[in-house]
Amino acid sequence: MSDRAVDLDPTVAHPARRYDYWLGGKDNFAADRASGDAIEARFPDVRKAVLANRAVLGRMTRFLAGEAGIRQFLDIGTGLPTADNTHEVAQRVAPESRVLYIDNDPLVMTHARALLTGSAAGRTDYIEADLRDPGSILADPRLRNTLDLGRPVALMLIAVLHFLPDRERERAIVRELVAALPAGSYLAVTHATMDYLDEAGRAAATRMLESGVADTWPSTRDEFRELFDGLELVEPGVVLLPEWRPDGAVAPYDPAAINMWAGLARKP
Question: What's the pLDDT at 114?
């Protein structure tokens, strides 16, 4: 893996470091905190959504490694390491699981090399690459050194696609990645939405996007559902984060506070 610390610009907010800030981490810069605070000032429940997203990652991974029998994971948009990373959850269920992480933030990769170690029976590796260039991810020899593309793979796109402003480009990237995976593979996605915001909330979110304060481009339920075209959605289908296979009864919550879709589907 190349060292690209020169690409790290602490004056520009990065989604992975802002996410780390909202989770209570310390691997973030002033620009990330300022960006997070600006978004939270208008949407004070944003941390609830972040925590709910982290929880659904765990539930999806447990399902994939358990009931679905998946032993290979391609996690794009990894974010900074925290508790219960994909490989930790998967390898608790199946120690032989192999996980390849992808992120475009050099700080994420620095911490990944230092902190993310897999089980002796499995394997964990990392590539510094960008979701916007799926071809470079698929062509990287480290992908095939870690994953066998002749066997099913779980493609994890958790809270990353909504950083792409073009919904058609988003679908094209997903199609390209899924096309490279064999039958029996899975696609797991979470994605921001404005479907549950009132008129004032939508207007505020739009202004933040247009001004550059926010960088999360939401999708409607129908747009999100299109990401799974040609795939077999796993029950309960497309739902808000807390509704995706909860561990128990779902506590009452405000959908506008979560405002993120979750879905998982199998490639036939």
Answer: 59
